[in-house]
Every structure is written in structure tokens, then in C-alpha cells.
Design a protein that fits this description.
about 100 residues; mainly alpha; disordered N terminus
Length: about 100
């Protein structure tokens, strides 16, 4: 009976470790997919904004001066968003070990 209990205990711990590893892998995959989807949505929103702005100008709903002002604001907002995303990404990445650099 003691041998049976030890065998069951080993299988239990192997199952726990396997479950832990699978959870970590799933978390990493989910975070990467989320980051990709967010990057695409920001790019799509920016493109949509510029195309809408051009359509308004071309249809005569806004003047060239209004178009230039709105375009400048939209570009500034896009730059701010990109900078904020870079800062957030840098804050979530672990620091690299000394001596390890990305290849150029």
C-alpha cells in the first residue's frame, strides 16, 4: 500500500508541473496575440482617420486650412500614441543581461 501511495504522489506532482508549464505557455501566447492585435488596431485607426479627413476635404465639407490643422493634430496624436505604446512595452519587458545586444 505504501508503494501505491508513492506512485500516485509522483504522478500527481508531474501533473501539477505540466499544468503549470502549460499555463505559462498559454499566457505568453495570449500576450503576444494581444500585442499584435493592439498594434494593428492603432495602425488601422490612424489610416481610417487620414482617409476620412481627406474625404471631408475632397467633398468640400472642410476647407484646406481646416484640413491642415486637423491633419497636424491627428499626426501629433498618432505620435503620442506610438510613444506611449513604446513606453508601456519597455516597462513590461525584463531588462536584458549585460553584454547581450540585438544584432544590427
Amino acid at each position: 500500500m505504501i508503494v501505491l501511495a508513492q506512485g500516485t504522489s509522483g504522478a500527481f506532482w508531474i501533473s501539477i508541473v505540466a499544468l503549470f508549464v502549460l499555463t505559462i505557455i498559454g499566457f505568453v501566447i495570449a500576450m503576444r496575440l494581444r500585442a499584435r492585435a493592439f498594434d494593428r488596431s492603432v495602425a488601422d485607426a490612424e489610416a481610417f482617420g487620414f482617409s476620412e479627413l481627406r474625404a471631408l476635404r475632397d467633398s468640400g465639407r472642410i476647407s484646406d486650412e481646416e484640413f491642415e490643422i486637423a491633419e497636424r493634430r491627428l499626426r501629433e496624436k498618432a505620435r503620442e500614441t506610438v510613444e506611449r505604446l513604446r513606453q508601456e512595452r519597455a516597462a513590461t519587458k525584463p531588462p536584458r543581461a549585460r553584454g547581450s545586444q540585438r544584432p544590427s
